[in-house]
Specification:
This protein is of the alpha+beta class and 439 residues long. It is built from 11 helices and 24 strands.
Amino acid sequence: MKHFSNHRLRSGTAVATAVGIAAALLVTAAPAVASPKPSPVRPHAVLIGGALSENPEILRSIVDLADPDGSGPAKARIAIVSAAASPAKNSTDAADDSLNNAAANGLYYSALFQRFGAETYAVPIDAAVNYDGDPYTPARANDPAVVAELSAATGVFFGGGDQMRYVRTLLDCAPATDEAFSSCTDTPVMSALRAAADRGVVAGVSAGLTIQQGPDMVTGGEPYEAWRDGGQPGYLDDPNALAYLPYGGLGFVQGALLDSHFTTWGRQARAIKLGLETDHPLVLGVDETTAVVVDRRTGQGRVIGEHGASLLDLRLARETASGVKGVRWSYLTSGDRLNLRLGLPLPAAGSNAIKTTGAAVAPRADVWDSLAGDGGTYSLRDLAVAAIGSSARTTTGTTLETGPQFRTTLVRDVLARGWITPAGGSSFAGLEVRIDRIP
């Protein structure tokens, strides 16, 4: 399986809160919602948390949303943008679709979508020219021939890698220290990509998910360092330091900070810290082999795939001397729905409430899945699922690192509810998250 990096390598004014509404929906069954149909006046976004090739349902959804006439004769035509990957070193590497470089990834992603009946166009743009005859160059972001090719596209797919490479290649930004850009304009190719996305769908995996957000896009960082040191704008030499881009990403999906590999790599704490520092009330994070399909005009979405998507609601969060309390976490699995405009998690039709047990949940170490740990994944997600099914009011976990050490407390109060979806997923809404520095 190819590895597409998103940096980490293991070496409100509301009368009722969103979670309160979601809890009420568990009592009255939610109506079934038909799957979105492709329409040029209802463009969609597909936000994939990672490992795209392992879930055919996600690939099929993208192709269906890019199909301009459903069962008619026209085919989906998807523009493949892979500039987030590093440039190929030579022509041999560029032609080997088992490697991870921009040209090779263009071949790889094209083959994936062609298997599901789509036509593809690999957009020949990357961050550098490394050899004579290199067809992938930064200059092609201004190439009228590339713009012309995109005029027939009915969808856009952004591959994985480093989301800042998309900023550097597809946007023209005013110079800033540490690349902390606050003013950018579209290149001609980026304008053409927006038009193609509006005709059907924009999708992306890993960095290709993150680049779809608006202001204050994360550019790097690990959870522990985020809480120990705080964040700063720009793109930093230290990949563990929390950093973000004030201008943000390409802005296809508005209303929330976006993040990928989310509970897979334990990024909840990082996202909470970034949300607090940049004054964003909502975070949407998506796990690997999972996607959220969002109607870009209404902000309504549904979860598909193997794991889940997280909504972190910071509207009632309160910073304390040692951390934060009042963050509400909802975790949605296949069939569940959400409304990004309202910050609402919505259970799948036919879901059944989780019955609590009397068993307390043991505290968990390395709950943020540190890079220095033993390679754990989904630790805080698994702790939360256990907590929601327990009758215990609180459940805790600590960071691997000490000096200082941080404790995460999950509080199952009257706003917290869990359910099992018809697909068998364990979902929950309204679980309070508290983070404290341990004295």
